[in-house]
Design brief:
Pfam families: SNF. By secondary structure, the protein is an all-alpha fold. The protein has 24 helices and 2 strands. Strands 1-2 form a two-stranded parallel sheet.
Length: 587
């Protein structure tokens, strides 16, 4: 009786603790927060480019495959477990302590991504400010940053031919005014990652301003920032539809859409298509960062998280497809006006949006309006994703160190300022190279896939897929079919593992954007170090748990205990088996 009473008191204390973390008040608050987080720059630009690169409509086949087997099941799993346990990415693993390293990995990956997102926002704001000119600064070649090999696109054929012949003799090539504005004015870009050069003070100032916005959006908790969340979730859709309507009415729009959607069935035999589709799904839906778990933990226990999660998955995919129509209709217009193939306009790399769209904007009527709207959209998409990732990271830190919750404003301010300092190398003259390194090695690719694989295994096999289904039933009243159990236990982990193997087998060192020049060996080694920071935490913590925790037990008993809630009542020695996670609904 004493044990039961103690367990009941512990449950009540946990519920009281949960009320301190803040909960969504409105019916659509949680859904809007997920849209603000998961719908980002990857939907607006990366998806359309990958779709074009990998066979148009054929890419949608591979994308749909990973959408069904990986995105939806894992998305639902993360959101549901966050709501059910009312914990962040690290503390939720108390119900399966052997996998706590996964929570650490989630936090590290979010840390890597947060480090550079405000830098991208600062680029967008720089362009947004620059669009307030009758003549865009990237539109001509008579600025102080332009060189003799600059072409604006308005020169006659005779001049272009003569210039190219002259540069050929000097072993040089022409550059567009858009490229030179991006590299020589916005970034002050050096040729290699080890040439810091100096700090781009304008970007540093804008980045500081962006971090102030992040701080004030979160200082009372994300559940108190309803207006910010709603605005950031909905306003980009208004801009996307404005751009879509304008794009579809331009001459040559059908050419761009044809390039975007025309299927190339032979591409299905190319492993690169499947690798690109899979990694895009994981990155675009934001699984593995811990943010979805944190956002779900702010729900009331009877909220219909399953409905919201499935809705969000379809909203995310639809946004990517609609954005593709908007972007490629405009690119089709550009190809007709400039008499270029779309392949010459679409350029890969982190600066893709800052190269192609400014070139397109100069050709549009009311060009200042369209340029401003486009870069405003990128700014908002970057800010809302950053806010939600910061919430995921800080929630995990608050759960691990509850004292932070009592001094949230100060702790959050220190955290934001720390990330601002971490972003300074990315606004140096070699900053874009550093950002590429963090993006490719630290926040995506095989590091993300590795963490997601063990997260799915830990939840579906350690905690139990049947328990997750039971948790959803107890919270929402929805009885999921056995298909969901099969997806969680077999399809999703297998998909994650195969994608990880693909990334390893087909690994290629990172190259400087638009060149065949690889990053130096030391930079590649540092990239592997960034990846290992999240990956190594999983086996290291498992070893630590098996060696140092519960040393009075046999190895077999420790292993079994590692798959179960391990909170022990020290007074009477009895285990609170699963009391932490399975709280009665009437409590």
């Amino acid at each position: 009786m004493t044990s039961s009473r103690n367990g009941k008191n512990d449950e009540i204390m946990e519920l009281q603790e949960d009320t301190e973390r803040g909960q969504w008040d409105g019916k659509f608050d949680f859904l809007m927060s997920m849209i603000a987080y998961a719908v980002g720059l990857g939907n607006v630009w990366r998806f359309p480019y990958l779709c074009y690169k990998n066979g148009g409509g054929t890419f949608l086949v591979a994308y749909s495959f990973f959408f069904v087997l990986a995105a939806v099941p894992i998305f639902v799993m993360e959101v549901s477990i966050g709501q059910y346990l009312q914990k962040g990415a690290m503390e939720m693993w108390r119900m399966c302590p052997l996998f706590k390293g996964v929570g650490i990995g989630n936090v590290v990956i979010a840390f890597m991504c947060i480090a550079y997102f405000c830098v991208i926002v600062s680029w967008a704001i720089f362009y947004m400010i620059s669009s307030f000119n009758s003549t865009f600064p990237w539109e001509t070649c008579n600025n102080w940053w332009n060189t003799v090999n600059c072409l604006s696109g308005n020169e006659n054929a005779t001049y272009v031919a003569a210039l190219r012949q002259k540069l050929k003799l000097a072993n040089q090539t022409t550059e567009t005014s858009v490229e030179q504005f991006w590299e020589k004015r916005v970034l002050y870009q050096t040729d290699s990652i080890d040439e810091f050069g100096g700090i781009q003070w304008e970007l540093l100032t804008i980045m500081f301003f962006a971090w102030l916005i992040i701080y004030f959006a979160l200082w009372k908790g994300i559940t108190s920032a309803r207006k910010f969340v709603y605005f950031c979730a909905l306003f980009p859709y208004f801009l996307i539809f404005v751009l879509l309507i304008r794009g579809l009415t331009l001459e040559g729009a059908s050419t761009g859409i044809s390039f975007y959607l025309t299927p190339n069935i032979t591409k299905l035999a190319d492993t690169t298509v499947w690798k690109d589709a899979g990694t895009q799904v994981f990155y675009s839906y934001g699984v593995g960062f811990g943010a979805l778990i944190a956002l779900g933990s702010h729900n009331k226990r009877d909220h219909n998280c399953f409905r919201d999660a499935v809705t969000m998955c379809f909203v995310n995919g639809s946004t990517s497809i609609i954005a593709g129509f908007a972007i490629f209709s405009i690119l089709g217009h550009m190809s007709v006006i400039a008499n270029k193939d779309i392949a010459e306009i679409v350029k890969p790399g982190v600066g893709l949006a800052f190269l192609a769209y400014p070139e397109v904007a100069t050709r549009l009527p009311l060009k200042q309006l369209w340029a401003f709207l486009f870069f405003l959209m990128i700014t908002i998409l970057g800010l809302d994703s950053q806010v939600c990732m910061m919430e995921g990271l800080f929630t995990a830190m608050e759960d691990a160190f509850p004292i932070l919750r009592r001094h949230k404003k100060i702790a959050l301010g220190i955290c934001c300022f720390g990330f601002f300092l971490l972003g300074i190398p990315m606004v140096t003259y070699s900053g874009v190279h550093w950002l590429n390194l963090f993006d490719q090695y630290g926040a995506s690719g095989y590091a993300l896939l590795f963490v997601v694989f063990f997260e799915v295994v830990g939840l579906s096999w350690g905690f139990g897929a049947e328990k997750i289904r039971g948790a959803i039933k107890s919270m929402t009243g929805i009885q999921l079919s056995n298909v969901w159990v099969l997806l969680w236990k077999f399809a999703s982990p297998m998909t994650s593992f195969l994608l990880f193997v693909f990334c390893i087998v087909y690994f290629k060192p990172l190259h400087y954007a638009g060149t065949d020049k690889p990053y130096p060996t030391w930079a590649t080694a540092f990239g592997f170090f960034l990846s290992s920071c999240s990956m190594i935490s999983i086996p290291l913590y498992a070893l630590y748990y098996l060696i140092f925790e519960n040393r009075d037990l046999s190895f077999k008993e420790r292993l079994i205990r590692g798959f179960r809630p391990s909170s022990i009542n020290e007074n009477n020695g009895t285990q609170r088996a699963e009391q932490m996670t399975f709280l009665p609904q009437n409590q």
